[in-house]
Amino acid sequence: MKAVFVVGTEEKSLRPITDTTPKLLLPIVGRPLLSYLLESLYKNGIREVYLLLPYAHRRVADYVRAHTPQGMQVHLVFETDGARQQTAQRLAAETEPLCFVSGVHFWNFDLHKAMQVHLQTDADLTALTVPAQMCRSGAVLSIHASGAVTACRAYTPHTALPTAETDSGVYLLRSGCLQTVLQTETETDGFSVLPRLLQYAVYACAAQGYFNAVETPASLVACTQDVLRGKTDFRLPHLADGIFTDSALPKGEYQLFPPVFIGENVTVADGAQIGPNTVLENGCFVGAKAKVKNSIVRAGAAIYPYAHLCGATVCENAVIQECASLSAGSVVGASACVGRHATLENGVRVWQHRTVENGMHLSGNVRDCTPQDILFAENGRLCTMPDTLTPIFLAAFGQALGGCTFGQKVGILCDGS
User: Fold this and answer.
1) Beta 273-274 vs 255-256: how paired, if at all?
2) What is the CB neighbour count within 10 angstroms for residue 14?
3) In this structure, are residues 141 and 184 in contact, taking their beta carbons and an 8 Å threshold?
4) Among 70, 74, 258, 341, which is most buried by a count of CB atoms within 10 Å?
5) 314-to-46, 216, 317, 409 alpha-carbon distances in Å
6) Using an 8 Å Cβ cutoff, are 96 and 66 in contact?
7) Gyration radius of the chain over CA positions
8) What is the model's pTM?
9) What's the rounded Cα separation, in Å, for the pair 10 and 54?
10) Whole-angstrom Cα distance, residue 17 to residue 298?
11) What is the mean pLDDT of each run of 10 residues along the chain (417 residues)?
């Protein structure tokens, strides 16, 4: 069996994590996401893959050329005019069903049951489904008792029942349908291909195996934790019970709470606490008495003494200074800096190269400015000073001022104009 894997456009929901690393190459416990997907295809007997990439994904192409699994052939197809049609024509004569993958998710499915359903029902397309809450970018399916898909609708938290199923972006299909599917995938900009294909014989089959859409920083952390906990079939370089590493552990008197993954050339100072469910990638530094749990620390990042990370992602070469605190779902972009005693609340994202000043308490994202340009960030609305005063700014100013903590000093400056 052969596979066609359409990467599509880069998702913005993971920014700033994907500003410096394409989603396909995001490390998950020491390996790029793409390596897991290629291994999943290989385990299902797929030895030939057509990887359709946006033209800008040269780093992905370089990785594929250097790390294709032995015994597998990966054809790199860049998304230029006619590329999809040429791929469909090349595979039109295939007699076996094709595996079609739309979008970049983390999955480890056993396709054998789906193949049985596909052949027994004589389907044109068989969609592997997962519970709707697991993939909000997919289409929620109405499925007949026979397994036939009769209708599709977009996922919304208010309309998706607990028992609802959505397509995972993994399909089996006849080769003759490939051109239509590729064209439909283009028109829907990566959203589920199913709503426009119901004129065909479309069936659903519940996926067997692990799935995580990796649509948000929090889901990336959750996926990492699941790999560490052994909830997937992927093997990790094992050192001891729940401790994974590619090399010797750093020297020092610190505590590890499994499961944890430690990369190469990592430095951990005395008294630090690492884990559980934590990844320290190559070249990281963790200072004395720092606590890092349920978090991802990317290559070259530095966590200074007494800093506290819980459920956070710190991107490459970022710096978290002394006594700073990062809460669940927070993200610090590449080469950004969080100052001493600063606090990032749940879900706060700091874009790359930004600086959070000492002692700041952030409840909103820092993207297009540095926090010294932000008004009333603590316990109030973030408000950025524009070049000219506008009604919109004044409304935001009032909200920010009204949200300040009682008793704190407030300064208002005027240049005399």
Assistant:
1) parallel
2) 22
3) no
4) 74
5) 35, 14, 8, 32
6) no
7) 24
8) 0.81
9) 9
10) 10
11) 81 85 90 92 91 76 85 83 74 83 89 91 89 69 83 66 76 82 60 68 89 90 92 80 87 93 94 95 95 96 96 95 95 94 93 91 76 43 50 62 55 54
